[in-house]
Design a protein that fits this description.
This protein has about 750 residues and is of the alpha+beta class. It is about 55% helix and about 15% strand. The protein has 22 helices and 19 strands. The protein starts with a helix and ends with a helix.
């Protein structure tokens, strides 16, 4: 306790510089704790979503005893979102059991809406077709998974849902049928956030705990020479770091509380939550308030080890020893694992993520990242020593000699930025893996709507929706119910040759304005339909039903439909000119096609909802809940990358500022003996940019190897992400350029000889 109190007295009574350093440590630690709290709270937010979703699920049976309350749940796509409607026919039994968020069950003709559905109904009155009845109130927060959910409870009569309705027994299950993120996909998220945030965060907190290491070591060496014990000296140093970390933890939790309040009101793309969902839990508070000071304690003890063990060498600024090599051992071990898995990508049996591989892959990637950070001081030392011995440039000599004396100081400045590039490679790999797992294998995405539900104007507007490449009509030929059982029929596509080419693969030999047969070797043909047979299509024209005969021609077009596709198995191509201008084929579907990119799919679905809100849209081969999960994952990965950028930038700013304060005496001495300001700025720039460039180059290589090992074991088709390399290279070059500019103001214009006397 005496050493602890002594450390506090030295902290607050040893000058303004030490107090500034202390608050700089606390401010940096608070930013790190805020990011840590956000990462720890994300699973809690997702669990809150799933918990409320599970609590409102109706428990029902297929039997319908007399007096039972009937329930029918429908979930339909509205744009890129799911619109859930629960129809309730109140009975005499279980009518008092209400779902969360409601005080009573709706009577026939009554509708309770979520706030987002209420706003949608106000802005787009056409949605009223989905909500038969009068709005009676809003659903409370306990009954909604998140604030932006489209949800409605609709009261109706028994006869309207008797065929499909089920008897209500109660509400709530122990699991959510459609979780915010599937458990298997959640593994990707945890791994990505751990690599993007937690690894840089641990380094950043360690950097904050070791600010002004040289000055503190000299002060601690003085205490050691005055008779303080080795352990006592370490405890004096740890007192400052622990108090700074504790203050930073409290400030960081306060920053997170403010951030949570702001984000719950503004929201993130595809992810919204209530303030209570993101409230700090006891576990999160304990990890931040206890874990960060404990980390600072150990870092403080390690940083004071040299001053306590050999105080004379510290006070006399003895020649430093070579940095430890054990960090290189971690890097070699991690790269060995990563390269081993990359090698399997060249074989016929690449490694998979089963069994022991599920542990080795993350371990190899984390060891590579950690080893990269711990090896940088050794690389910086070796490079600085070699360059300083051979160069004749004054600038290079001064820069490299300083890096040789303090290799760890320089690397504390650039470590966060190096890890940022390494983590960005992993983020690219996770996004590619998610795209391979969830994206349809076809390059196009089809959307099918009932033609009878669309007007001619709506058809024209749907064809002009941004992202729609082509449109067509699919219809099956008509068969007489009283005719023979073997009468021929076939499915037809009403489209031009240009539209057909965008809907399928192949299609050569198509002639506009001519009916032609279609042949897909991967699909069956129409029942008994042969060239020369006449197919009949029912059309409605002028309020009357007519039969349009179309002979099946001999001319054939070979094509291959995408999988999945709305035109799979089509047998006949009918040009639009073959149909009467105002005719509408019976049972026809209006088909749109666009890119299968998730962003494009969401844009097209939202565009369709803007044109025809009440039409039922079938996005062929796409699960709306899965699309929402992908959007949530992309949002969380974007948040992780932003936090990684913030942490890396903060580490650079904090370390560079501390480094400038630490070297004021050396800069003053060199200035007084005649060095020009331009030379000193060049020295500062070279000291940072040269080791940073080497670190960024290593981060690019090791990051890409780690990404490839992850992709290979993921089982996808893409193993080597060469497309993402230019982006990372440009990002690394931009980081180096910004760092070079950031070092220029670190050489002050004010010369204070008192700094030399104090030193």
């Amino acid at each position: 306790m005496r050493e602890f109190l002594l450390g506090l007295r030295l902290l607050f009574g040893s000058g303004r510089g030490n107090r500034v350093r202390f608050f700089l440590m606390a401010a940096g630690g608070s930013l790190g704790v805020c990011c840590l709290a956000l990462v720890l709270t994300i699973p809690q937010i997702l669990d809150a979503h799933d918990g409320r979703d599970a609590a409102r699920q109706p428990r029902s049976t297929s039997a319908q005893p007399a007096g039972s309350t009937l329930v029918l749940q429908r979930t339909d796509p509205y744009g890129s979102k799911a619109f859930t409607r629960v129809f309730l026919a109140k009975g005499t039994k279980d009518a008092d059991q209400v779902p969360p968020g409601l005080k009573e069950l709706p009577d026939p003709g009554e509708v309770f809406l979520s706030p987002r559905a209420h706003d949608l109904l106000r802005d787009r009155p056409a949605v009223r077709g989905l909500l038969p009845g009068d709005e009676q109130g809003l659903i409370g927060a306990p009954g909604l998974a998140h604030p932006d959910e489209l949800f409605a409870y609709i009261g109706t009569t028994r006869d309207k849902i008797a065929d499909e309705g089920r008897a209500l027994n109660g509400w709530g299950y122990s699991y959510a049928p459609f979780p915010a993120i599937e458990p298997s996909t959640l593994t990707y998220l945890r791994f990505a956030l751990g690599s993007l945030v937690l690894l840089p965060l641990g380094i950043f907190l360690s950097v904050c705990a070791r600010l002004s290491a040289a000055s503190r070591n000299r002060r601690l060496a003085s205490l050691r020479l005055l008779g303080l014990s080795t352990k006592g000296t370490q405890r004096v140093n740890a007192a400052e770091t622990v108090v700074a970390a504790l203050l930073g933890s409290v400030l960081g939790l306060g920053e997170y509380w403010v951030l949570n309040q702001v984000m719950t009101r503004t929201g993130l793309p595809s992810l919204r939550w209530y303030p209570d969902d993101g409230a700090l839990s006891a576990t999160t508070i304990a990890v931040c308030v206890v874990g960060c000071p404990v980390l600072a304690w150990f870092v403080g003890r390690v940083s004071a080890r040299d001053a306590a063990a050999n105080p004379l060498a510290v006070r006399r600024t003895a020649a430093p020893g070579r940095p430890a090599k054990w960090g290189g051992l971690l890097l070699v071990t991690g790269l060995g694992i990563v390269v081993g898995y990359c090698t399997t990508g060249f074989t016929d049996r690449p490694a998979n993520s089963v069994g022991l591989n599920t542990l080795l892959i993350p371990a190899g990637i984390l060891l590579t990242g950690l080893g990269l950070v711990l090896t940088l001081p050794l690389i910086s030392y070796a490079l600085a020593r070699r360059v300083a011995r051979t160069t004749r440039s004054l600038t290079l000599n001064l820069a490299m000699r300083r890096n040789e004396v303090e290799p760890g100081s320089t690397m504390r400045v650039v470590t966060g930025l190096v890890l940022l590039v390494f983590s960005a490679s992993l983020a690219q790999g996770v996004l590619i893996q998610l795209e391979q797992v969830t994206r349809p294998s076809a390059p196009v995405q089809d959307y099918s709507l009932s033609l009878s539900a669309l007007t001619a104007e709506q058809q024209r507007r749907l064809a002009d929706v941004p992202g729609v490449r082509a449109h067509a009509v699919t219809v099956e030929s008509w068969t007489d119910p009283e005719g023979s059982a073997d009468q021929p029929w076939a499915s037809a596509v009403v489209a031009t040759c240009d539209q057909l080419a965008k809907l399928v693969q192949g299609g050569k030999g198509c002639v506009d304005g001519k009916v032609m047969r279609l042949s897909d070797p991967n699909a069956g043909t129409g029942q008994g339909a042969r060239p020369g047979d006449t197919l009949h299509f029912r059309v409605r024209e002028g309020g009357k039903d007519k039969t349009l005969p179309i002979p099946l021609p001999h001319d054939v077009i070979a094509y291959s439909a995408y999988d999945p596709s709305a035109v799979h198995g089509a047998d006949v191509l009918v040009p639009p000119s073959a149909l009467p201008a105002a005719a509408r084929p019976e049972g026809a579907r209006y088909v749109l096609t666009g890119s299968s990119d998730h962003g494009e799919v969401r844009k097209v679905l939202d565009g369709i909802a803007a044109v025809t809100p009440t039409a039922e849209v079938e996005p062929v081969g796409v699960n709306i809940e899965g699309l929402q999960q992908i959007a949530v994952l992309e949002t969380l990965l974007a948040v992780g990358m932003i936090m990684g950028l913030v942490i890396g930038t903060a580490a650079f700013v904090v370390s560079a500022t501390d480094r400038a304060m630490e070297r004021r005496a050396q800069v003053t001495a060199i200035t007084l003996i005649g060095a020009r300001g331009r030379t000193l700025r060049a020295v500062q720039c070279v000291q940072v940019v040269l080791p940073l460039s080497i670190g960024l180059a290593l981060a690019l290589v090791t990051g890409k190897l780690a990404e490839s090992s992850y992709l290979i074991t993921g089982g996808g088709e893409i193993y080597w992400d060469f497309a993402g390399l230019p982006v990372l290279t440009l990002a690394a070059a931009g980081v180096a350029a910004v760092s070079a500019v950031g070092t220029l103001p670190l050489v002050g214009r004010r010369i204070d000889p008192e700094l030399i006397r104090r030193d």
